[in-house]
Design brief:
The complex is a heterotrimer of chains A (651), B (254) and C (408). By secondary structure, chain A is an alpha+beta fold. Helices cover 60% and strands 8% of the residues of chain A. Chain A folds into 3 domains: 123 residues, no CATH class; 84 residues, no CATH class; 295 residues, ABC transporter involved in vitamin B12 uptake, BtuC, CATH 1.10.3470. The longest helix of chain A is centred in the middle third of the chain and has 50 residues. Chain B has one domain: Rossmann fold. Helix content of chain B is 35%, strand content 24%. Chain C is an all-alpha fold and 408 residues long. Helices cover 66% and strands 2% of the residues of chain C. Classes of the chains: A alpha+beta (651), B alpha/beta (254), C mainly alpha (408). At the A-C interface, helix 13, helix 19, helix 24 and helix 26 of A face helix 6, helix 7, helix 11 and helix 13 of C. Chain A: Pfam families: BPD_transp_2. Chain A: This is Amino acid/amide ABC transporter membrane protein 1, HAAT family.
Chain lengths: 651, 254, 408
């Protein structure tokens, strides 16, 4: 007894710290089991593989790998095993397992190749796992673990457990422990161990955990009379419920032989067609068989004559499944395991749900920033000046195309974006000032005419962009450091580009507030907004202020265009896609107030994401419902979320 | 607030305890006021005293924060009714600036105002009857626009527009007329004509005139209510209120 | 009648329309010389329908001051409603014919299933959605042409006017309604075949033997008659006291309210009535176009409608007709590839590419320099003058007439 314990200890020791210096070579081990190796039968090979694997010799892994790859050959003359590599012609280079060095050549006729079948190769592979798991290179250990997580087997369990204790890298050790639990869940014969492992995953968000747990709770629906006493029943079902439509239940009963299937509608029709004689079926003229009722009569007549199987119109599928019990049964037989898995999955789903909510909030936030960016310029022109600019969307588009053109000139994406932002501002600022000077200032106090005139500009600009850049989408590529996503866990992540847009939106908010509150332009703009004639008499030139304000609003649209172009394709319709949402944002938020625009964008962004969450497949429907919601919202707050009250609101 | 002295003829409009504030500024502060069925009343007060806001509340344009506006024999509360219903109930309003439909003729303006069924279908199939035409002509004569019926009202002089608007008010046949600065921008002759029209109207209905011009108020020769900071400061004949020390302080002591 | 006295242009319009209709008839391939091709007869018929919806737009915008950017949605809905019957009835005929050769005569449910598969196969379905309940009945769908857009206009208008949304807010709100409707129809499960829309509408059920040459002229007559009736209705609406009230609402709605008129009621009446008129126009237009899909309803179409009215001259009914006819015909000319390219040496102007630029710019110019639009040209003949108001519009409201648009 004591000897065996000592031997076991020695074995462990040798596993962990392979000690050279023993006289035994791997060749000795192979020779000991030469018979079974050559016989290569799956039934008898196990001791040989075990012996090699547990020999504690450094060459053991090489032997197993060569064996598995069918590179192990036996020299017929003396029965020694070599690793053989094909040289010229039929000659093979022989390599000694123990030293790894070449020991001459031999002709193929002098050698016999070991050809393990697939079952044996799988056994060898399982034996190899322990070597990979103990490989000195941590990267290879990690790879082996991930491979096991993806495609684990029962045989991996023992070497994995054995390798945990000796693992020095804490990260890989944690990975090993997780992998061990995943394997335990799937393959451990001990029920208690599985339950413990399952419960260990409560609240986990990992996709692998869910992948391991989900197969345990797979179910199938069975006709209850055919279910044995020991079956692990999840619940009983009645036919006609949401989970078990009548047709499916009926099919189960037919499959179980509980009912004889009635001829279907199509079968009955085929039977009628097969029994047409002299323009009638069972004496009923064909022309009269244009109702189901007449066809049923004809069929019944045929059945009476014994020509076709009986059909009882009263015995519908509904009546057949009436009062019959069906059961949903776990494929996994152990009740304790499925119970634990269900409980753990429920807790995981709660955690996932919570995290999805966070993820959705992040999505909503980023959508809100995009709407805010698109709308802020509009908020200035519409809110501050009362001018509705239908060409605002086209200014956004001009900004995006400016970015595209800059990227054609400057290949470095980082530099080009840095150049594009001020350039886009300059281009659209100029366009805005030109439009204000040429069109809008002649139409102050005529907002409806302004709307239509700027619409004219809008269609002209859109077509112009089509003529210049073509109809296909142009790429505006973001710098490399904006690729990828900030990932909190398997559920919550947000792309860097969206973070950048969020940051940009915050910067805009800050800049806008600074301009309006701290600069001369802001002061004059507010003065002109509140009382143009008084402002004029104070020496403010309202013409100039209007021009600058309009230019500012348009310029911001240009920058928004660069930002939107980074994650959406640049087309001539880019702006048109955002214009209605931008108007909505401004109107919902309340005109004339930047905080209102912020709130409006937030509300619309979150609302759209929220509606999409209820019906994720259908963004069109989400937009429809959102607009309907906004129309109703306007009923209750016609002046928006932040409304100016009293006389300041005007009429 | 002190109740008006003359209650003998009953009360047509009674405003009690209304207050309204805009962004913290109290435009009307616990105002009470009442007027009889055939009475002329002038409301005076400095800028920001709440004269126009008072009219806005009575005509339904502004909702007060608190208080009641009771109307007619049945003492119906006007708060919560929209402008059109209040107008149909018998309150006519003339704005400070002349507001007539400038793209339409004097005849069209007056015909639109003549008391008739106001619902869209009735209006659509409306055919002016003899009495409607007679009413238009009678009013046109009264406001001195009998020979201008087919002219676009946008082309009338300022004073003519004011009269046209008063004419439209009378065509509605209201029980109460609220008139905001009718004499603003008028020549002396025009003022006299305006005074005559209003005095004539006050014989059969209540007329409330908001006015800055003391001379015009004196010519109206009626009871005067002085508003200040959204409540009644004094009430009585013009001579009476102009001797009131509070009124002197507010008007002259500034 | 009173309205003839007040509207001297009315007899002229009637005469022009009758002469035009007769001329097209006698130049058509079906009934005359064949100088006008069948496809051009269809184009002219469609143009009359567009003129019809432009009258509706003029009533709501030019006369009532509501810049609705949603009337083309009603137009499209009308087209959808009649299209459902056309498609159902014709598919039924085809299905019944193809089933006639089967061994057994088909049952009603077999026919219905086959029609469903035919119509909805393209969106991966074969069941009839609830909204097709009445598609089998011509008269029911005709009623729906009026009812569906009418009720939509009524509900939307009630919500919008009740909360006193006016001016550009109202425009944006109507635009949002249009966008919501078109996005909804773009879905495959909207029940109206998603972006495929309804097609084959030019084929009248049971009229396969009749050539399109004849059908196009019949539709042209129907469009012409509808336009005439709409014109008379519109003239009747605006010439009496009702016209006074809605023009009052356009220029100064607060004043109308203090006169005791329910401004909201009048607006709702006009909005709904014009919505129904637009729907009738659509029901006549799309059988001539042959196809309707959600893109037709997109907000931009409704803005174009306003553009036509503005170019023709707002606040005069013949202006709307002229604007719609002129712009849509010229658009067809330029975008149809018929217009010759202009070679500048260094660049060739292709009108297909540049027409929209020209249209956009000319629209800006009309708004700025010719508020009376094309209709203003007639004033040169009739010596109608604008008042001199030193640039002031005729009322305080945003939709009020501009100085140049008014008559002295």
């Amino acid at each position: 007894m004591i000897r065996r314990i000592i031997a076991a200890c020695l074995l462990l020791l040798t596993c962990a710290l392979p000690v050279q210096g023993q006289d035994r070579t791997i060749q000795d081990v192979l020779q000991e089991h030469a018979d079974v190796i050559v016989k290569s039968s799956r039934k008898t090979i196990a001791p040989a593989i075990e012996a090699v694997a547990n020999s504690g010799l450094p060459a053991a892994q090489d032997v197993l790998e060569a064996w598995q790859a069918k590179d192990m050959w036996q020299r017929d003359s003396d029965g020694v095993f070599f690793k053989a590599v094909k040289a010229e012609g039929s000659a093979y280079d022989l390599l000694d397992f123990d030293t790894g060095g070449p020991v001459g050549q031999a002709d193929k006729s002098e050698l016999t190749q070991m050809k393990p079948n697939s079952g044996i190769r799988a056994m060898i592979a399982a034996a190899l796992v322990q070597f990979q798991l103990n490989d000195p290179d941590p990267e290879r250990r990690r790879e082996a673990l991930l491979a096991i997580q993806r495609d684990g087997e029962a045989s991996h369990l023992a070497p994995l457990r054995a390798s945990i204790k000796s693992e020095s890298d804490p990260e890989i050790r944690a990975l090993k422990e997780v992998t061990e639990r995943l394997l335990t869940i799937s393959f451990d014969p001990d029920e208690a161990a599985r339950v413990t492992a399952i419960e260990g995953f409560k609240g986990s968000l990992s996709l692998d955990t869910r992948a391991a747990l989900n197969p345990i709770v797979t179910t199938h629906i069975a006709y209850a009379d055919g279910v044995g006493e020991t079956a692990n029943v999840k619940r009983e079902l009645r036919a006609g419920s949401r989970d078990l439509p009548v047709a499916e239940a009926y099919a189960l009963m037919v499959a179980a032989g509980a009912v004889t299937p009635q001829p279907s509608l199509a079968e009955r029709k085929a039977a009628l067609e097969a029994n047409i004689s002299d323009g009638s079926v069972a004496g009923i003229p064909l022309a009269e068989l244009n109702t189901q009722e007449a066809r049923d009569r004809a069929y019944a007549a045929l059945a009476d004559q014994g020509l076709v199987p009986d059909f009882d119109p009263a015995a519908t599928e509904e009546t057949a499944v009436q009062g019959v019990r069906f059961a949903e049964i776990y494929d996994e037989p152990s009740r304790a395991v499925t119970g634990a898995a269900e409980a753990t999955l429920a807790s995981i789903n709660r955690a996932v749900g919570l995290n999805q909510f966070f993820d959705l909030s992040l999505d909503g936030l980023s959508l809100a920033s995009i709407y805010f960016l698109a709308a802020i310029g509009l908020a200035i022109t519409f809110g501050v000046m009362g001018v509705i600019n239908m060409a605002h969307g086209e200014f956004i588009m001009m900004g995006a195309y400016t970015g595209y053109v800059v990227q054609q000139v400057i290949p470095d994406y980082t530099v080009s974006i840095i150049v594009a932002i001020p350039l886009a501002f300059a281009v659209t600022f100029a366009a805005g000032v030109a439009m204000e000077r040429l069109i809008i200032r002649w139409l102050y106090n005529r907002p409806l005419e302004t709307l239509l005139a700027t619409f004219g500009v809008s269609i002209a600009l859109q077509q112009l962009a089509k003529n210049i850049f073509g109809t296909q989408a142009r790429p505006l590529t973001s710098p490399g450091w904006l690729d990828g996503a900030l990932s909190f866990n398997d559920v919550v992540s947000i792309s860097y580009i969206r973070i950048a847009i969020f940051v940009l939106a915050l910067i805009f908010l800050g800049v806008f507030l600074f301009i309006m509150k701290k600069t001369r332009l802001g002061l004059e703009t507010r003065a002109v907004t509140q009382n143009p004639s008084m402002a004029a008499s104070m020496g403010i030139n309202p013409d100039k202020v209007n021009m600058m304000t309009f230019g500012l609003g348009s310029g911001i649209a240009g920058i928004a265009g660069v930002a939107i172009g980074l994650y959406a394709k640049v087309t001539s319709e880019l702006g048109a896609d955002y214009i209605v949402q931008s108007f909505m944002t401004v109107v919902v938020g309340g005109v004339g107030n930047i905080w209102g625009t912020l709130l409006g964008a937030t509300m619309i962004g979150f609302l759209q994401k929220g509606i999409e969450w209820f019906n994720p497949s259908n963004t069109l429907a989400a937009q429809t419902y959102m607009i309907v919601f906004i129309i109703i919202f306007i009923q209750f707050r016609p002046k928006g979320i932040i409304a100016l009250k009293g006389r300041a609101a005007g009429d | 607030m002190s109740a008006p002295a003359t209650q003998s003829a009953g009360t047509l409009l009674e405003v009690s305890g209304i207050s309204v504030s805009f962004d913290g500024f109290k435009a009307i502060n616990n105002l009470s006021f009442s007027i009889g069925p055939a009475e002329m009343r002038a409301i005076i007060g400095p800028n920001g005293a709440g004269k126009t806001t008072f009219m806005d509340i009575v005509t339904g344009k502004t909702k007060p924060d608190e208080g009641k506006v009771l109307w007619g024999d049945l003492s119906r509360n006007l708060i919560g009714m929209n402008e059109a219903r209040i107008a149909r109930a018998g309150i006519g309003r003339k704005f400070q600036r002349p507001t007539v439909f400038e793209d339409q003729t004097v005849f069209e303006n007056l015909l639109m105002a003549v008391k008739n069924d106001r619902n869209p279908l009735a209006v659509l199939f409306f055919k002016p009857k003899f009495k409607d035409l007679a009413k238009v002509e009678e009013l046109a004569a009264e406001i001195g626009l009998a020979d201008q019926l087919s002219r676009k009202s946008g082309e009338l002089s300022h004073g003519q527009k004011q009269w046209l608007e008063i004419g439209m008010l009378l065509a509605q046949d209201p029980k109460l007329l609220l008139v905001d600065e009718p004499a603003a921008g008028m020549t002396l002759g025009e003022r006299e004509h305006t005074t005559d029209i209003l005095k004539e109207a006050a014989k059969t209905r209540a007329v409330v005139v908001v006015e800055h011009d003391m001379e015009f108020v004196r010519r109206l020769d009626c009871k005067v209510t002085v508003l200040h900071e959204g409540s009644v400061l004094a009430e009585g004949s013009l001579d009476h209120v102009t001797q009131n020390q509070d009124v002197i302080d507010v008007y002259l002591g500034r | 009648m009173d309205m003839f006295k007040k509207t001297p242009s009315l007899p002229i319009f009637i005469a022009v329309l009758v002469i035009f209709t007769l001329a097209v008839t006698f130049l058509s391939e079906a009934y005359g010389a064949g100088a006008i091709s069948t496809s051009f007869v269809k184009t002219l018929g469609k143009t009359l329908c567009l003129a019809l919806v432009a009258i509706a737009m003029d009533l709501v915008w030019g006369y009532t001051g509501i810049l609705s950017l949603g009337h083309f949605a009603f137009f499209g809905l009308g087209g959808y409603m009649i299209g459902m019957w056309l498609m159902y009835a014709r598919t039924k005929l085809i299905v019944v014919e193809s089933m006639a050769s089967a061994a057994l005569p088909p049952t009603p449910s077999e026919i219905s299933d086959a029609i469903g598969t035919q119509i909805f196969g393209v969106v991966g379905s074969s069941d009839f959605p609830l909204i097709w309940t009445f598609a089998h009945s011509f008269w029911a769908q005709i009623a729906l042409v009026v009812l569906v857009p009418g009720i939509l206009a009524l509900i939307f208008g009630w919500l919008a006017f009740r909360s006193r949304v006016t001016g550009v807010y109202l425009s944006i709100l109507t635009q949002a309604m249009t966008l919501a409707l078109s996005l909804y129809l773009f879905q495959n499960d909207s029940g109206l075949r998603g972006n495929n829309g309804l097609s084959g509408l030019q084929n009248l059920p049971g009229a396969d033997a009749i050539s399109q040459d004849y059908i196009s002229v019949w539709f042209f007559w129907a469009s012409s008659l509808a336009l005439l009736l709409t014109y008379l209705l519109a003239t009747f609406l605006v010439s009496g006291k009702f016209g006074s009230v809605i023009r009052g609402i356009r220029d100064d709605e607060a004043r109308v309210r203090f006169l005791g008129y329910s401004v909201e009621g009048f607006k709702l009446f006009v909005f709904t009535l014009t919505g129904v008129i637009a729907a009738i126009g659509g029901a006549l237009y799309y059988p001539q176009a042959g196809i309707i899909n959600p893109a037709e309803i997109a907000p931009i179409a409704s803005i174009y409608l306003a553009v036509w009215v503005a170019i023709g001259g707002r606040g005069r009914i013949y202006g709307a007709v002229i604007g719609a006819a002129f712009v849509s015909l010229v658009s067809t000319y330029f975008t149809g590839g018929q217009a010759p390219d202009i070679n500048l040496g260094f660049y060739t102007i292709k009108w297909v590419d540049w027409w929209l630029v020209l249209l956009g710019l000319s629209f800006v110019l009309v708004t700025l320099f010719a508020p009376k639009g094309i209709g203003g040209l007639f004033d040169l003949i009739s010596h109608r003058m604008s008042p001199d108001r030193h640039g002031l519009p005729l009322g305080p409201d945003k939709g009020s007439l501009r100085e140049e648009e008014a008559e002295k």
